[in-house]
Every structure is written in C-alpha cells, then in structure tokens.
Specification:
The chain has about 170 residues and is mainly beta. The chain has two helices and eleven strands. The chain has a six-stranded mixed beta sheet, with no helix packed on it. Strands 4-5-6-8-7 form a five-stranded mixed beta sheet, with helices on one face. About 35% of the residues are buried.
Amino acid sequence: MKYLVVSDNHGDRDVLVDLAQAYRGKVDKMFHCGDSELAPTDELWDDFIVVKGNCDYDPDFPNTIVEKSGSDTIFMTHGHLANVRSGLTSLALQAEGAKANVALFGHTHEIGCEVRANVLYLNPGSISLPRGPIQLKSYAIVESTPDQFIVRYYGRDHNPYKELHFIFNKK
C-alpha cells in the first residue's frame, strides 16, 4: 500500500490541488493531518482523508480518524489534542487503543518518523510553514509492504529530499 501524507498548509489550497492532481491514482490513499484552514465542504476532501487541526474551526472536521487499508490500520489526528509537542506518549496510547500500526499527525510543522513497538509514527512536516531543525516544505509518501515501511519526504516540486529516505522493518 502507498500513502501520501500532508499537513499544515494553512490556507494554501493550490498546493493541495497540485498534490491531488499529481498523485490521484498513483497512491492508495491521501491523508491530510489538519490545519488546512479550508471548509469541510471543499471538493478537495473527495481526494483526501482529513482531520481537524487547531486552526480548523468548523466542527464538521473529525478530531481523529481510524482508516483500514490493506493490512494496515491507520490512526490519524492533528496532534494538538495528543500533546505531541511534549512527546508521543498520548498519541501512542490513542494509536494502541485503535489497534493501529500507523499513526499520522501534524501540528508541530516538523518532519519526523520513527517506529516504536511495531507502530510507525509519522509527521510529514508542513507543506507551507516548516519549523524545527529541518526547515523544508514537505510531504511524505509511505510505502507499506509486508516486511517494511519505506518513508520518503518530498518538496513542493515533487522531488524527493534524498537525505530524508527511511526504511523500517516490521516486527
């Protein structure tokens, strides 16, 4: 299975239109981890699975989503309600409760991925306003095979950041 993961575009609709056009039919699912600042009725959400961020004020966005895809169970939240700035403990408990093997989140605008207890935790960074030590406008493509998670980060030009390529063995 192959997933596109993006977050924190903060009103930049054009970048999401570009991603949808570039990846429609090329990935199995597209996830948006919140802070789009777009309406929940926007036609873009026909392409993306989306959650509410702390800058998305419409109550029609869900705070969390659990999505089954192949052998994966994906838990997604923006991160502000899981206190991700203070660590992954709360997020890990939520992912465990969902029996997820993938946990997607945004909020910090910082690129990050790691595997803990056979769960992939992934923040795609911000496609518009990056923060932290790796200040690159980014989104991620996750390929989930029976044995591995393969994670690659890309820029707005759809070119991969060569140094941001990670392979994690499952189990």
